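Annex B.
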Amino acid sequence: MKENYHIFYQLCAACDTPELKDLRLGKSGLSYLPTHTRTNFYYLNRGECPYVDEVDDGEGFEEMREAMDLVGIMEDEQLMIFRILAGILHIGNIDIQPNGDEESEIDDQDFHLAVAADLLGVDRNQFKKWMCNRKIVTVQEANCGREAISKHIYSQLFKWIVQCINNSLTSGVKQCSFLGILDIYGFETFEVNSFEQFCINYANEKLQQQFTQHVFKLEQDEYVKEEIEWSFINFYDNQPCIDLIEAKLGILDLLMKSAR
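Unconventional myosin-Va: predicted structure tokens.
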């Protein structure tokens, strides 16, 4: 499923279709808001670019559904997926307010709390309670917990979809070979890097080291061993960067110590 996170934008584009009305993503569901766009959702308006030129999200939604049909995800399963995705969007809009003494609370009448609980099939009061009251939780901590819930739900849904696709592609014949896809590492630097991005870049550093070790260092050692005449290639050794992250008193070690 190439769309990945873009499914949220596609879902909003198709929100007025009869079978998706109950998700309350469109004007009828967000009647208290002045506009009828995906920018009403916190998770979709952070980048301030909810639309891409020459990209029809409604058409992309239909293509995605055809792909789901092709890999054997039934219509009722598709609707279940859309309910979960819509629930995630509504979770992002739950308004967590301070309640004195560095605690937090959610209004009993919060529209998005009610809709998210309904779509995900959980008790509204319990959902509200555990979003704010694990311990004495500040608004900032409660917001972080809200985002963690959304990420976890999405992660589990993504794994389930991958499993569905793998099951549909299983032939039952004993495998004698496999097809692998190499995703070349790439480093990204943002104005504010999240911990997730730090972990991604750390993994990329390890991949780069593996690549350079085998393609350059070990190959050159083999040429020396076999006394092959050739010109040595200078390459960047990123071991100091990896040591900075994973060595004793490195970044990960210090983070673990500070979390205790």
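The longest helix spans residues 139-169. The CA atoms of residues 124 and 136 lie 20 Å apart. Further annotation is deferred to the next reporting cycle.
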